[in-house]
TrEMBL record:
The lineage of its organism: Bacteria, Bacillati, Bacillota, Bacilli, Bacillales. This is DeoR family transcriptional regulator. It comes from Kroppenstedtia sanguinis. Transmembrane segments: none annotated. It comes from the Bacteria. The keyword Transcription regulation applies. Residues 3-58 form the HTH deoR-type domain. The keyword rRNA processing does not apply. InterPro entries: DeoR_HTH (IPR001034), N2O_reductase_NosL (IPR008719), Tscrpt_reg_HTH_DeoR_CS (IPR018356), WH-like_DNA-bd_sf (IPR036388), WH_DNA-bd_sf (IPR036390). SMART domains: HTH_DEOR. Keywords: DNA-binding, Transcription, Transcription regulation.
Length: 193
């Protein structure tokens, strides 16, 4: 997971353009070239970009690897897909996040470009619409994914009963998105490797 909003923006620029000059990044963000080099260090360590003379370029990964990693934090997608969050975009593009935490953050980034978002009901493992889902955060049950952990439910009563047994706070889609973004900006997310 990237540590700063600037690193995320740099990565997005490099993804869109294929390669970018260090000088151009320095000018765009009004920081020194040394600061850009420090920002790029994490991106290169995670295998997302490759430094080239005077710039940086996207590090192409095999299609299979891209499909098996989270679009937001770049962790491998696991748990048999039970925690995944899918974003349906124009031109039949589908992005998969490892969990609702990353899915909500990516959903917020993409905004109106998201045609539909799907996740899985934690109790029944059925596919549900993310925008109609109920989200439980701060529960005592740990699933070993990104923090703050977010579990999704299709039925409000099931979610409320889950909170009674395992603790946590219940949010609708808008509230959950706002909460995860707020926590992320407070730099409380754990860095996953």
């Amino acid at each position: 997971m990237l540590k700063s909003e600037r690193q995320e923006q740099i990565y997005q620029m490099v993804q869109e353009e294929g390669h970018v000059k260090i000088r151009d990044l320095s000018n765009k963000f009004a920081v020194s070239e040394m600061t850009i080099h420090r920002d790029l260090k994490l991106l290169t360590e995670q295998g997302l970009v490759k430094k080239i003379f005077g710039g940086v370029q996207i590090l192409e990964q095999p299609k299979e690897a891209q499909q098996n990693q989270c679009v937001y934090c770049h962790k491998p997608v696991s748990n048999g897909g039970k925690l995944t969050y899918q974003l349906i975009l124009p031109n039949n593009q589908i992005e998969v996040a490892c969990c609702a935490h990353c899915g909500l953050l990516r959903h917020e980034q993409l905004g109106g470009d998201v045609l539909q978002a799907l996740c899985h009901d934690f109790m029944t493992n059925t596919t549900i619409s993310a925008t109609a889902a109920w989200f439980v955060m701060d529960t005592s049950l740990q699933m070993g994914c990104c923090e703050p952990q977010v579990l999704t439910f299709g039925n409000q009563n099931y979610a409320e009963n889950f909170v009674k047994g395992f603790g946590g706070v219940l949010f609708n889609f808008e509230e959950a998105t706002k909460r995860v973004v707020q926590v992320m900006h407070a730099d409380c997310c754990s860095t996953q490797k």
